[in-house]
Amino acid sequence: MGASAVPDALKAYLDSVKARDPAPRSRWEVMLYPGVLALGLHRVAHWLFEAEMFFLARFVNHFSRFLTAIDIHPGAKIGRNFFIDHGFVVIGETAEIGDDVTIYQCVTLGGTSPDNGVAGKRHPTIGDGVIIGSGAQVLGPITVGARARVGANAVVTKDVPDGAVMVGIPARQTLVDAADYQKEFVPYGTPCSERFDPATQQVEILKCELEAMRKRLDALAAEKSGAKERAAKERDRA
């Protein structure tokens, strides 16, 4: 069977995966990826879930988890071109994922505790074009804005603005302009530079503020010294 037999929508999806992962040599190789298999089975499970065939939906869910080590609740809503690279991902029931989202291994889109009285929406909403790095935990009914980047092992418990870069525990927004990192795809959602670390940035800001204060103190000291000299000269003339 040739490539022409593959539906256009599927080809577009497989090509979107290849654009984010240079390893596969063909679309057929991409179809063996656990993330791709898990997404395909989730589409079936979600259709069953929407039809209120909950047991069958769960059966497909558990079968998918057995095959791929990826656990996507049948109730989760997922947009176009979603890509899980490698696997070992958990996505909760009320999670909502937009288009062109990339998630790396060991990520959790987790919910709030069922014993805290919060009902309904318990899991995150992920905007279009978001990248979530390996090991990151995005918890609760928060919103991660479009094109945001969540760095590896970050723990996100608050809303993330559009285009933000989040790193650390708890996750903090870096002071990077969107134009600096959104021109191309960023693997693992983590810019590989010290200047993107919030702690480093805060130290640099403190250094700048300290230098400005030193210059101001020097200027005040010089001004005071000049005033004393002028006062001494006036006394001598008198």
Strand-pairing-aware structural class:
alpha/beta
Q: Approximately how much beta-strand content do the residues carry? A: 5-15%
Spatial order of the strands in the main sheet? 3-6-9-12-14-15
Q: Overall mean pLDDT score? A: 83
How does the major sheet shape up? Answer: 6 strands, mixed
Supply the number of helical segments: 5
Q: Indicate the overall shape.
A: elongated
Order of helix and strand elements from N to C terminus: HHHHEEEEEEEEEEEEEEEH
User: Which spans of ≥5 residues are poorly predicted at pLDDT below 50?
Assistant: none
What is Rg? 26 Å
**Assembly state:** single chain
Helix content: 25-40%
List how many beta strands DSSP finds.
15
Give the distance, in angstroms, between the N- and C-terminal Cα atoms.
108 Å
Task: Write the SSE topology.
Blueprint: H1 8-20, H2 27-30, H3 34-50, H4 54-68, E1 71-72, E2 77-78, E3 83-84, E4 90-91, E5 96-97, E6 102-103, E7 108-110, E8 125-126, E9 131-132, E10 137-139, E11 143-144, E12 149-150, E13 155-156, E14 165-167, E15 172-173, H5 198-237
Parallel strand pairs: 1-4, 2-5, 3-6, 4-7, 5-8, 6-9, 7-10, 8-11, 9-12, 10-13, 12-14
Antiparallel strand pairs: 14-15
Helix pairs in contact: 3-4
Structure description:
Helix content is 37%, strand content 14%. The chain contains five helices and 15 strands. It has a six-stranded mixed beta sheet. A five-stranded parallel beta sheet has the order 1-4-7-10-13. Strand 14 (165-167) and strand 15 (172-173) form a beta hairpin.
